[in-house]
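can u pls check wat happens w/ cobalt (II) ion
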Amino acid sequence: MILPIVTYPDKRLKQRSKPVESFDDTLHNFLEDMYETMLASNGIGLAAIQVAKPINALIINLPDEQGEQHRSNLMEIINPTITLSEGSTFYQEGCLSVPGFYEEVERFDTVTVAYQDRFGNEQLIEADGLLSVALQHEMEHLHGKLFIEKLSYTRRKKFEKEYKRLQKDKKNVK
Ligand code: Y12
Ligand code: CO
């Protein structure tokens, strides 16, 4: 089932998500819905709070070298924490909750993340490149943070102006 995506400036995106405690069919069905929702919107990452469920769950499905996404590359990350971070990198980010807007954001270059899979098994991943950026972006959603909050004052002002205009244009098309 495709779920509606919560978009900025909806206040629900500011909520802090809660730990997942039950690794049961309800969680598994919800993860399937998240996957369907993300694919339907051409996303490569989605946090549960973006579909209005404040739990510490996120999915990432990076494209291969041909730009294609495969279910076999789907990562389901539950109750993640960063245990190690190093360096810094800049990446042009986008977010399904902030449609139509991309901006360069500073992130750690590499991260090590401890998390649980859909069955509650403990996992550890060391990530760099796009996966590292995606993990950091999605994990910030779990803390109620959006990538636009990392912009400088001037860039944020410009964003607010452009985003308002985009929303207005969308309304006029409907
Ligand atoms: C690097 C940076 C950010 C992430 C987080 C995951 N972000 C996304 O999956 C963003 C998807 C996205 C999709 C959009 O829609 C289409 O392309 C059709 C989009 O544009 C509009 O909605 C107009 C914006 C963002 C991971 C790795
Ligand atoms: Co996002």
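The pocket of cobalt (II) ion (ligand 2) is lined by residues 95, 97, 137, 141 (CB under 6 Å).
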